[in-house]
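Anyone opening a protein record will find just a pair of labelled lines. The record below illustrates this layout.
***
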Amino acid sequence: MIYTCYSGGANGADFIFSSESLKHNFKVIDYSFEGHNTKSSNRFILSPNQLKEGLEHIKIANKRLNRNITNLSSYVKNLIARDWFQVKNSEAIFAIGSLASIDTVKGGTGWATQLAVDNKKPVYLFEQNDNQWYYYDYESNMVQIYEDIPKLTPKFAGIGTREINDNGIQAIKNLFK
């Protein structure tokens, strides 16, 4: 079976997911755009029309996140718009980050996880501060503790914070065991 990791090519969790995927001979697609500052050698450059599609989904996600997106630079809008393609093409989302509340994730990772929730995809979050996996429960509409290590799907989004710590790095490595 061929596994594919969809990510964003950022430093931190994205880089670790991509590196571990390559070590295991998985295909890696790091969504990017013209002018994106990334060192990834697995870049898939999104077109302006694709970025526009992503931004439309970001606007939907923002109904739940309620963040101010009007004042964001076009570069930042492209960063979050690319998240849509990570979610769109994956079967499940594996994220490293921190909870903002019982139903949302902090920072840029929160955009991708909300896009996944909006599209009813399985979402697993490793909360670095708790050193604990969580999953999004669609019955309660909030995250719940996941008692084990989730199982990677053949097409998965491996995403997360740039501020990854040792717990987050180990959590990613454990997914590949």
The chain has one domain: 4-175. The longest strand covers residues 27-32. Helices lie at 13-23, 48-65, 74-81, 83-88, 107-118, 166-175.
